[in-house]
Structures are given as structure tokens and as C-alpha cells.
Amino acid sequence: MQVLNPEDEKKEILKEYRNLLKALKDHHLDAAGKKQIRDAFSMAMEAHQGMRRKSGELYIFHPVQVATICAKEIGLGKTSVVCALLHDVVEDTDITLEDIEKKFGTPIANIIDGLTKISGVVGRTNSLQAENFRKILLTLAEDVRVILIKLADRLHNMRTLDAVPRTNQLKIASETLVLFAPLAHRLGLYTIKSELEDLSLKYTEPTEYKEISQKLQDTKSKRNQFIRKFIHPIQEALDDMDIRYDIKGRPKSIYSIYHKIKKNQIPFEEIYDLFAIRIIVDSSIELEKSNCWRIYSIVTDYYTPNPSRLRDWISVPKANGYESLHTTVMGPQGKWVEVQIRSRRMDDIAEKGYAAHYKYKEDTHNESNVEEWIRQIREMLENPEISAVDWLDDFKLNLYNDEVYVFTPKGDLFTMPNNSTALDFAFEIHSQLGARCLGAKVNHKLVPLNYKIKNGDQIEILTSKKQKPSEDWLNYVITGKAKSKIKAALKNEKRRFALDGKEILMRKFRNANIAWNTINITRVAEFFKIAQIQELYFCIGTGKVDKTAIIGLLKNLERINNERNAITDNPHPLHAIAPKQKTKIPLSQIPKSKPEQIIIGDGNDLDYSFGKCCNAIPGDDIFGFITVGEGIKIHRTSCPNGIRLMSNYGYRIIKARWANDELNFQKNFLAGIKLTGIDGMGIVSEMLDIISKELQVNIKGITIGSKAGAFEGNIILEISSTEHLLDIIDKLMSIGGIDQVIRFNVDENLNTIVSQDQNAA
Question: Phi, psi (5° rounding) for residue 462?
């Protein structure tokens, strides 16, 4: 960014401040409210005086623009705007929380305190670690405005990420994609969620982002022409209804198009639902449902609907308060078109989520489930029985999962994540009900604990006072709440057995007249090859350790103690060393002086290997990940496992690049290509001739199948670089009948790879 002269900078600051006040126009601020915002702006100006961002612009632009996002794009009011203007002053300047509390009051000071704590967890350059994510959610459980302001802060940082070094761009973008975009989604901030995803893609997959963006721009005029033709008859019918409405075409986000291309392995040109038609009607709350269904009737009078694609979120809103009526109809030129029908109130909530929900809360009986979701988060935080990374995985699962709607025998409605089981539902109702669950009746029919519930199911939970959770139950549930409750119950049960076992062992020691001390207890544990004393107590309490063997051991313990120092090459079994347990490496043991960069192929002495989950080849955009015991693992920046590592373990990421001279690489690299096309005589022979004879590339594996005149094949090749691979793809695409050639990861068993890297972490 070009640095302006002081006078122009003052004009720009004043312009941004006026934009902020315009964004607050709908809030009808009184004189006291305007003065409070002016005072906050003045304090921020003075506190950040002379400070500049990495882009070169004055730092004050950042808090003002974050405050504008809060007011204009999220719909927050005066208190949140004041906090956004001051969100960095405590951390970055000499101003204290006491100063802010004295000037602006306790509520504002509390929110800024929460924002300051988050900044300690999520630095401007360091990547977020999973074990710290709970701290962020604690602030959400106390006051959701802290998270809403943080989302605005993250959105502005993503919009200005060009000024940040490439390695930090990858860390911040990955963290945004994994954590902040799902959080925006759950809070109903769909516009912000989409922009965060698009901006993350811009930095993690810059080539694909530019390609899709350019193609959207190139096809814009055709789309607009199609939209005008589609909505013309609907507009005429709506005008006759004498109601106020808006119709607009909403393009799909670049990220959602990219995700669809990857998931379905189709080119951009084959994606027909690049946009949705949105019809927004001005209506009183009493009439908005009936008006939406009337508009649906008009749409389906002109275009044939797809019955399987009707989504009624008006009668039963989503868990985050989203309300809308969605249908997909067959439009002109044989193209499917998604139509979204909603009231102005519904649209406001869909765009601005949680904040807009409170704007309408007094006017509607449809209580949002967001408060219930926040209550569940608080409950999970109070009982964290699983590791940080596992807990974060469960949390993200519940963020993005689709919902199913089920009923109790009395007709109460519950919203559950998709793929939930009857046991999940039992724990959702009450933890004691879940712990005593024997089975369930679904629609009056008996089903097992792991039955996957479906929309509209009526579920009755069957219980017994004798029932207790078991290890198997963890395989029957998917929700974080159920998992944490089961693990807590198992832990309590284990603790009870351990106390019984300890009492038994103490009695045996007393009867044998053996001193009760750590040395003697440890020797008993070693004899039974048990690594931990607490585990020994548990094994005794559950009967896994033979009590008779304990008596025989204690009789000889005194003699063994006397002989212990004389033992040489053939020790008594009592002294067998317990196997070392793998432990997760603490943050303190990660090398503090990690290398700044690794250059692949320059003969350096660093111990590195290539991650099997993505098999990077020269020319790929790559990074290094410091593992425990396996040196540095090299991943592609687009590797799904790599995105996870950059987000959760940013402190162990290092820059990596290929040596400039490809002759330095003394090996070939594996790469896979997938081919699809029309089957024809000799097409396979022609492919193999080009690969083996013309290009002299070694084939390591090949599978080709044909069905109904179409073929699909996977070929694994030894190649030297991405340029080499692209040359092969271009040659193959020149063969008549071949429709598509795309690269794929040779080892696509991502679940296994992620598990291995998690252990290495």
C-alpha cells in the first residue's frame, strides 16, 4: 500500500470515521452514545499515534474498519463499536483496563478484557494451537460479543493479508479456514463465513482461486442474462400480488465452487448451480410464513420443482436461527436453479446471524437455538475429559454438521447433528438418562444404541438403574457432549475400582508386614509389568491381577529387596523394567531455535522426508513440519492434512522451497493421474505409448475400467517435477476421446496419515 502524506492520511481517517457513523445510522444513537463513540475514537487515535501496520498504513485504520464491520456487516450496536475501536489498546499501548473501566464502564472493560485474552492466544503472526481454542470459547460462553468482534478483527486481517510474509499467510489462512469460518457459520454469519473461506483459499490455493475468480468474471454477463429471463415471469406475478419484495441473484462463493470441483472431480464448466435466486418479501411476522408459501406456489407455477430438494427451514429453523424456504426448480435451457424465499426479518438474521436475532427477539416466538448451543459449549468446557485436539475435532464436527429434527414421546422437538445415534439423543436430553440407556424405541419399534436417527423420528429412551457406560459406547456416539459424559463416567468408574484395589493391596502389605512405600509398590507394579501405580490399583480392583500371586510376591519381597543390589545379568521377574509409554511432546521441548527455512535438494544436513498423504514433487508449493522423532516432514500447502497441521501446530511450521537446480534431485517422485473419457479401440495403447515410449516415463501402477462406453483409469508415474507432470497431462489430453486428466495423491488414506502425524505431534 502506498503511504500517504500526513494531510491526506488525516482526510482518510476522517472519511473512515464518518463511514463508521453512517453504519450506525439505523441504531438512532442519542447524544450520549455519539459522545462515547467519539471519546473511544479519540482514545484510540492518541494511543496508536505513530504506529503503523506492516502494509505501511497508520494503525488507527484497523480498529476503525473493524468497528465498521461490527456495525455494518454484523449489525452490532454502540457498546460493540466502542470495544472494537479500543480492542488493541490494552495489549499494544500504556492504557490499562482500569483506565477503560473508569472512562467507559465495567461492561465495556469486560469485553475488552476478553478480546485482550484472545489476542494472547491468537497472535498476529503465530498460528492458533488446538489446546488454546478452549480459552477463546470461554469468552464466547461469557459474552458472545467478544467472539463477534474477534470475527470482525479476523475478517479485516484477512482482507489485508497481502502485507504479511508467505509463511504467516499460510498459517493464518489455514487457521481461519479450520476454526473461524466454521464459527461464523454456526453464529449465522453466512456472508462473513463465505468471505473468510474465499480469502483463505486465495492464500492456500492461489492458482485455483484466480482461475475460478476469472471464470466467474468471464461468465458474469451470461449469468445476468439468464437471471433476468428466469425472474421476469415471477416478477409479473408478484407485482399482481401487491406486495413489496426484492429479487436478486446470489452467486456461489469461490470456495464452495472449488469444494464442489474437488469433491465431484468435475471442471468449472460442468457446475450449473453457480448462483441462487433469492426472493425477499416485506411482511409482518404474522403473515410471513403464508406469504413465503404463496411465493413458492407462484415459482412452481412457472418452473417444475425437484421434490427431493425442498428445504423448509421456516417451520423448523436451523440450530443457529436460520429461517428460509429453499427449492430447486428446472429453469430455462434445462438448468437447475435454486430459489430461496424468505421475509425481510429472515434475511436480516441470515446475513447478520446472532446479532440480528436479538434485534427481533421480542417480536417472535421462534426462540433461536444459539443460546442453547452456547450453553452446551459452556458445559463441554466445564468437563473437558478429552485431549485438546480430539475435543477440537468434536467441536468442529458439531459446527459444520447438518441437523436432523427428532421428537420425544411428548412431542418436544430436538435438533441433533446429522449421523447422531439414539445414544447421542439420550445424552442430549440428560446425562443421567444417557448413562442408564439400554436401548430406544423409534416410532414404537425397538432399536439398538447405535441406531442413526432420522428426520421426524419419535424416540423413547429405555433405561435401567443397573446399566453403566462401557468403552464400546464411544464407538456409538458422535457428539462432543455424549463423548465427554461417557469418558467422565468411565473415569469415575475406573477411579472407584482403583480405590478398591488400593485398599486390597494395603491390606495385603499390612498382613505380610511389608512397609507401605512408593519403592515397594513400584516393585509390585514392575512384577506385573504395569507402568503406572494407579493402573496397578485398577487392575487389582477389577480382578485382572491374581490376588494369590500378590500374596506369593509379598512373601519374597524382603528377600528380593536385600538381593536387589547384587543382581547382574539375569534379574528376577520382579525387576522387569516396565515398557516406556509414549508421551505427547510438550511445547517446552520443541526446539526454540528451529531453522528458518529448508531448501529441498541443496544437500543440506537437515533430516527431512516427504509426507505420504500428499507426495510433494518439485514445483509444488510446500512447507515443513517438525515431527517428534521423524525429522521434518514436507507437505504440499494444499494437502488436507497440512492445513490441519498449520492450524493446530503453527509453532512447528517452517518455510520450505525447492532448490533452483532440478539436477540436484537424485530421485524421481511418485504422482498419480486420473483419466476419464469415452472408451474406444486402442485408446489405452495410445496412452501407454505416449507415456512409456514417447516421454519415457516409468509407470509404477495402472488400473483402468470401462462401463457403458465410458472409461476411468488411475496411473501412478515416476516424474521429476510438476512441470514434467503438466507436460504429460497436456500430451494425454491431445488424445481423442480423453475428456479429463487430473492429478491425485498417490496415498489417499488421509485418516491414517492424519493419525500418524497426530501421534508424531
Answer: -100, 135
